[in-house]
Each structure stands twice: as C-alpha cells, then as structure tokens.
Amino acid sequence: MFMSQNCIDRWHAAGGIALDGDILRFHAVPGAGLFINPSVYFERIDGGEADPYDIVGAVKTAQELAQMGAEHYERSVVLGDFAYTVNPGFVASPVGPDGTPVMLDGGAWGQLVGAIEALGAP
Fold first, then answer.
1. Which residues of 14-25 are buried (b: 16+ CB within 10 A; e: fewer)?
2. So what's the pLDDT on residue 23?
3. Three-state helix/strand/coil letters over the chain
4. What is the largest CA-CA distance in the chain?
5. pLDDT band at 97, cuts 50/70/90?
6. What pLDDT was estimated at residue 31?
7. Alpha-carbon distance 43 to 21, whole Å?
8. What is the C-alpha separation between 39 and 62, in angstroms, rounded?
9. Residue 122 pLDDT level (bands cut at 50, 70, 90)
C-alpha cells in the first residue's frame, strides 16, 4: 500500500508510530510492522499535456524511477521531456517482529487497518 510522507509525518508527530530505519511500527499493533520503500504517487502531468507514459495515478518506487531514467525532486518528477507533480511517500509491505516479510491473516490485517484509521488515514 502507498503511504504519503505527510501522513507518516502526522502519525509520528502524534506519537502513534515508531520508525526503526525502514520499518514502521504502530504502537497499537505490537509485533506487526511495515517495511517502507521510498516511492511517489503520480498526481498529474504538468502543462496540461497528454501523459505519454500513462503513469498518472501510478505509484513508482525510487528504484523504478531510476530504471526509467526519471529525475525526482520533492514534489516533481521529470521523465524525458515531461514534468509530473507527485506525492512523495512509501510503498509499505507487512513484516513480522524480526523484520521479515509476512502475510497477514484477516485478524492481523484488521488490527493494522484499525490502527491506521485511528491515526487518521488520509
């Protein structure tokens, strides 16, 4: 799932999460966490042009942007001759207490969604 940088900043300021490197943990859900990978959400192409790459509405990781030859700075990505407005954030994947990837069952997923909603999901 994509989580914006602004959202994570808000949650951290409210004391609802802890960040340990690239692992985000919700205080309300002990033992579960999320591995966060720097990413951007493509909001729109600048200048009113057609989107030649068909990426508006897509999420791309920093690695994918590099592979595409894109340049990212704050809320902008330049790809070829085109500029995009993006929302910086992270792609989050569930991890267990030891930081290894896990599949969440319905109950654990429900707890995680509940913690996100309690902190004020965007």
1. eebbeeeeeebb
2. 95
3. CEEEHHHHHHHHHCCCEEEECCEEEECCCCCCEEEEEEEEEEEEEHHHCCCCCCCCCCEEEHHHHHHHCCEEECCEEEECCEEEEEEEEEEEEEECCCCCECCCCHHHHHHHHHHHHHHCCC
4. 47
5. confident
6. 79
7. 27
8. 5
9. low
What would the pLDDT profile of 61-81 be if each residue is shown by its tens digit?
999 999 999 999 999 999 999
Lookup: tokens for 16: 């609802």
Are the C-beta atoms of 89 and 39 separated by less than 8 Å? yes
Q: What does the block give as tokens for 5?
A: 């940088």
The pLDDT > 70 percentage for the chain reads 98
Residue 26's φ and ψ, nearest 5 degrees, are -90, 130
Nearest Cα neighbor of 84 from 73, 93, 98 is 73
Measured between alpha carbons, how far is 82 from 6 in angstroms, rounded to an integer? Answer: 25
Q: Phi/psi of residue 47, each to 5°?
A: 90, 5
Structure tokens at 64: 């994918």
